[in-house]
Design brief:
Helix 7 crosses helix 11 and helix 10 runs antiparallel to helix 11. The strands form 4 sheets. Strands 1, 2, 3, 4 and 5 form a 5-stranded mixed sheet that branches. The protein has a 5-stranded antiparallel sheet with strand order 6-7-8-10-9, with helices on both faces. A 3-stranded antiparallel sheet has the order 11-13-14, covered by helices on one side. Strand 7 and strand 8 form a beta hairpin. The protein has 3 domains: 86 residues, no CATH class; 88 residues, Phosphorylase Kinase, domain 1, CATH 3.30.200.20; 209 residues, Aminoglycoside 3'-phosphotransferase, Chain: A, domain 2, CATH 3.90.1200.10. The chain is built from 11 helices and 15 strands. The chain is an alpha+beta fold. The relative contact order is 0.11.
Length: 404
């Protein structure tokens, strides 16, 4: 993956009453990723001796993520000693889709809840909380405690099922839930590192963990639905994608209209054929790739269940294959198929994968449209290009299928 250009950060400071105080001088952050707030907070402390809480993105130089000149709104403590500030001539809007953690006082309310949960369990903070990330999909804080540390994760309403799902998965190789309240999750620390660069042997173990979980949830669609998971089964996904194609004609390339129209018309029959392959719908992780697995060299933990839903389990295959080296893809598919074949010896897995290729791309287009529909306008640059991209990739998959 090509690295974006450097991120040059400007912070617009406000106080607890919402009064704009001015802007700090721009500086280059350690990382280009817009949602990566830890380096921003640390740089402001080191440069100015100032504690800030970054609330949200205000403006970006680039039309899509990441890098370039970026401005954020940040709150400072009352009475904080401020360095010289430049005036800011912008206007603070009040977008109705703004998440509570992106509003003044929102992070403090989340932290207060987390502390109350820890104290009720006989634990207590043992240092300043550390802001790690904030964007339209999550707010993440590290909380040092007397027993080690805990992680506060706050998610928007379209991910609010994550806490309920983790509770239902208790005891499985997933993050341990200390407490949750709506979109607020307090999670136990997981030792180790994220597995972006995992070797093939480690990645095959990830597949085994996921498939074992999915097998446990076969035939339990009603339970998953009751937990609030999105429905990506045939009827629901067909209706949603048909509506998306009609709604987002602006996002469809001219040559893609015909294949997408044909795909939409044939979706019900495609799902019938998929059912004939012999694998029932179950729990889908939704964003299953090695970076969403953490390992200490012994045990692996499957992270980030906000994207989970109900659907065909092989919907998780494409995202896992994307970062897989070409020379290891066949071994990865073979292992994945074997993991299912042991439980469902009559299943036609290769055919199911072929049928799912455009469906998987269509699901991603739907996911990104869900994000755009549920976030404030200033955050749209994160996802603006994703819906057109995955509509095009759906059409490409349809064309590839037709050409044999």
């Amino acid at each position: 993956m090509q690295m974006p250009p450097a991120r040059v950060v400007t912070l617009v400071l406000v106080d607890a009453a919402g009064r704009v105080l001015g802007t700090l001088p721009p500086f280059e952050a350690e990382t280009p990723w817009w949602m990566d707030i830890g380096p921003v907070v640390r740089a402001v402390r080191a440069r100015h001796g100032l504690r800030v809480i970054v609330l949200r993105l205000l403006d970006t130089e680039r039309a899509s993520a990441h890098g370039g000149a970026v401005s954020y709104l940040a709150q400072v403590d009352a009475g904080a000693a401020l360095p010289p500030l430049s005036p800011w001539h912008g206007t603070l809007s009040n977008d109705p889709k703004r998440h509570p953690y992106a509003r003044i006082g929102g992070p403090q309310a989340d932290l207060s809840w987390a502390v109350s949960v820890l104290q009720a369990r006989g634990d207590a903070p043992a240092g300043e909380p550390e802001q790690v990330r904030t964007w339209n999909l999550s707010s993440i804080w590290r909380l040092p405690t007397r027993s080690g540390c805990a992680w506060l994760k706050v998610v928007p309403p379209f991910f609010a099922h994550e806490g309920r799902m983790l509770q239902a998965l208790a005891g499985a190789p997933v993050p341990r839930l200390i407490g949750h309240d709506g979109g607020r999750l307090l999670l136990a620390h997981i030792a180790g590192e994220d597995c972006h660069e995992a070797l093939l042997s480690a990645r095959l173990k990830m597949i085994d963990l996921l498939v074992a979980l999915q097998r446990r949830w076969l035939g339990r669609d009603d339970e998953l639905k009751a937990l609030g998971l999105p429905d990506w089964r045939g009827p629901a996904l067909s209706a949603a994608f048909t509506a998306l194609v009609k709604r987002r004609t602006d996002a469809i390339q001219p040559d893609d209209h015909a294949p997408l129209a044909a795909f939409v018309t044939a979706l019900p029959a495609r799902f019938v054929a998929l059912a004939e392959c012999g694998i029932a719908d179950t729990l889908v992780h939704g964003d299953f790739h090695p970076g969403n697995v953490r390992s200490d060299g012994r045990a692996q933990t499957l992270l980030d269940w906000g994207d989970c839903g109900i659907g065909h389990p092989l919907l998780d295959l494409p995202a896992f294959l994307d970062p897989t080296p070409d020379k290891e893809r066949e071994a990865t598919r073979t292992h994945w198929f074997a993991a299912w074949q042991g439980a469902l010896p009559g299943a036609d897995l290769p055919r199911a994968v072929r049928l799912l290729e455009p469906i998987a791309m269509a699901r991603k287009a739907l996911i990104y449209q869900t994000f755009l529909d549920g976030i404030e306008a200033a955050e749209h640059p994160y996802h603006r290009s994703d819906v057109p991209d995955f509509l095009h990739r759906t059409a490409e998959a349809v064309r590839a299928e037709a050409s044999g």
